[in-house]
Amino acid sequence: MEGTDLKHIYYLLLVVLLIAGCNTNKETQLTPERPEVLGEMPEDMPADFDFLVRYGYGEVTKNEINTYQDTVVKDLIMNGTATADINLTEDEMRSIYERMRGIRIMGKLELVSLKQGCAVVPYQEDSWRITVNGFTRNWSWSGENCELTEDAEKLLELRNFIADIVAGKEEYQALPEAEGGYD
User: Fold this and answer.
1) CB neighbours of 76 closer than 8 A, spacing ≥ 6?
2) CA gap 82, 95 in Å, rounded
3) What's the pLDDT tens digit per position in 62-78?
């Protein structure tokens, strides 16, 4: 091989390594320039703050509060689901944001219980998606084991706080009542 060919191969190899080394996964970019990745959310609620929480029992997580689309889905158990368009006020969103900021929801959370060998049926389960300053974090926890972690308990309290706000809305109150239950 000639020296020019080797230079081209080295150049191509360098370009491939540079491209492979560039990480576009925001979940792993732990830098001071992205303090929300480290759990520090800005004091003032950013304009792009939104969240979605799905919750329910076991794999039946039909309830949903979605501020990305300003919708709420209610699990009617035996009768499927019902959806309503619900807008949270600026003050309600700010209050939710402050609670999320207080539990450092954009940081590292421990959601898997170390206590195994014990099961609860039916068990609660939540999945979350939260966006702050262009960064989106996804979380899920399960109450299948007999003990929730402290962080899972905080997410449960947060979800209940948000669900109480939604339950007070006229649009939610107009939805049909659930019939039946989960065993």
Assistant:
1) 82, 176, 177, 178, 179
2) 26
3) 899 999 999 999 999 88
